[in-house]
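Saturday, quiet lab. Running sequence design on the structure tokens for the scaffold JK sent over.
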């Protein structure tokens, strides 16, 4: 039973799920979200991410088995497919329930947040529009935080653009390590269409551009923090791009983007002023 529970947890894609939830909480701290709302925001986004991650493994079970994915518990027969599907739906319901406690605006926004991830898993991941859910999904995360405040309001447009650009970088960084396996199962997302070299360039340009927008628009950032954060982001994104050019891009490419995202969320937390 414990092994099945652990396998089910692995199917939630815990690293990206907890990372996104943590980033949202940090942003919430930056906009002075009250503690009683901050933990609800974090849990709501975490369960939303769990739902999307579980639905990915549920819907992709056939493809994952065909290419013998060792990192997918369902493909390895470690957890029943029905359990993963049920857990995905239950997680979505919990996310909506938590969002309802944050107010009408946050509750309504949770529907597209869930839908965007599910639409990607249902088929948008297999064509040239695969990047759209990442742009929208990451771009509206800051809005979920600010709409959960005592005085609901949208964040500055530049904040949503920064989040969306990191979403683009995350999509390319997450897809490149699976290029060979995806080709075997007919997946032709935008990174596959553009090719490895162009995709590596996209990672560097989008992550660096997002950081540049952040440091130029955040009026409260100390210059030393701005320069250091921008420099670290550029270095991490360039390293990710170089690794992405290898014959078998490692998962480290995605992990480097997560670190770069964390650097910029911290800068955003320190520099945001609504």
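Result came back. Writing it out in full:
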């Amino acid at each position: 039973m414990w092994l099945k529970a652990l396998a089910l947890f692995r199917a939630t894609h815990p690293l990206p799920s907890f990372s996104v939830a943590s980033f949202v909480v940090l942003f919430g701290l930056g906009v002075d979200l009250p503690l009683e709302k901050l933990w609800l925001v974090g849990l709501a986004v975490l369960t939303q991410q769990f739902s999307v991650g579980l639905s990915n493994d549920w819907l992709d079970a056939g493809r994952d088995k065909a290419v013998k994915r060792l990192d997918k518990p369902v493909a390895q027969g470690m957890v029943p497919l029905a359990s993963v599907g049920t857990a995905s739906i239950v997680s979505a319901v919990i996310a909506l329930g938590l969002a309802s406690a944050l107010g009408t605006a946050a509750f309504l926004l949770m529907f597209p947040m869930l839908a965007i991830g599910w639409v990607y898993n249902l088929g948008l991941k297999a064509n040239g529009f695969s990047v759209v859910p990442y742009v929208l999904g990451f771009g509206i995360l800051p809005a979920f935080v600010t709409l959960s405040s005592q005085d609901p309001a949208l964040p500055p447009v530049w904040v949503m653009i920064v989040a969306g650009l990191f979403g683009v970088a995350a999509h390319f960084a997450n897809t490149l390590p699976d290029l060979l396996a995806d080709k075997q199962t007919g997946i032709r997302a935008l990174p596959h269409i553009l090719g490895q070299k162009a995709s590596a360039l996209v990672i560097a340009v989008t992550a660096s551009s997002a950081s540049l927008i952040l440091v130029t628009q955040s009026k409260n950032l100390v210059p030393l923090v701005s320069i250091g954060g921008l420099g670290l982001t550029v270095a991490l994104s360039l390293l990710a791009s170089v690794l992405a050019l290898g014959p078998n891009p490692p998962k480290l490419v995605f992990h480097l983007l997560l670190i770069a995202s964390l650097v910029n969320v911290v800068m955003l937390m320190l520099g945001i002023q609504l």
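Notes for JK: The radius of gyration is 18 Å. The chain has a mean pLDDT of 92. Ask whether to fix the surface positions before the next round.
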